[in-house]
Design goal:
With 157 residues, the chain is α+β, with helices and mostly antiparallel strands. The chain has 3 helices and 6 strands; from the N terminus they run ααββαββββ.
């Protein structure tokens, strides 16, 4: 009785195009939609609450620190109107992104310059972006400021 080999012979491992199996061309990864993020930051820094609200998907939610979840376009626009964007200038750094199915995950740190105080504060954020029609929009967003540095105690006598 003849036994078939357990491992296929090299010629048995070719795909239909004659290339070795497993050597298919990988799809070019979809780039992160940085232009959408840049648009959100520009709207925030210019104080455009209506423009900010347009950067969110219809079923979006934001999770601001120390406040209830804000859901939907109208509530998000109202939130940003009361938050007075434009009085704070933000920049992001140390950003990491990953494609998760139909979403882009983005996390990093931010600096926020409070113009009326001349003080910069720091924090971190997490975002999920989703594609609606041909536009990348925020689906979930949360952020939190870092704790302020401890106050210096005056020297004791």
């Amino acid at each position: 009785m003849r036994h078939e080999p357990f491992f296929p012979r090299p010629m048995d491992r070719l795909d239909r195009a004659g290339r070795p199996a497993g050597c298919e061309r990988a799809k070019t990864p979809e780039p992160f939609p940085q232009a959408a993020v840049d648009g959100w930051i520009a709207a925030f820094n210019s104080g455009d609450a209506a423009g900010l609200a347009l950067m969110y998907s219809p079923d979006s939610q934001i999770l601001p620190p120390d406040q209830p979840i804000v859901s939907g376009y109208a509530a998000i626009e109202e939130f940003w109107k009361t938050a007075n964007p434009g009085t704070v200038r933000i920049e992001t750094s140390e950003v990491e992104t990953a494609k998760l199915g139909n979403y882009w995950f983005r996390e990093g740190t931010y600096s926020a310059l409070y113009q009326d105080e001349g003080q910069t504060r720091f924090g971190k954020f997490i975002e999920l972006w989703t594609k609606v029609d041909s536009a990348w929009l925020l689906y979930r967003q949360m952020w939190s400021p870092n704790a302020p540095p401890p106050a210096q105690m005056p020297p004791t006598a």
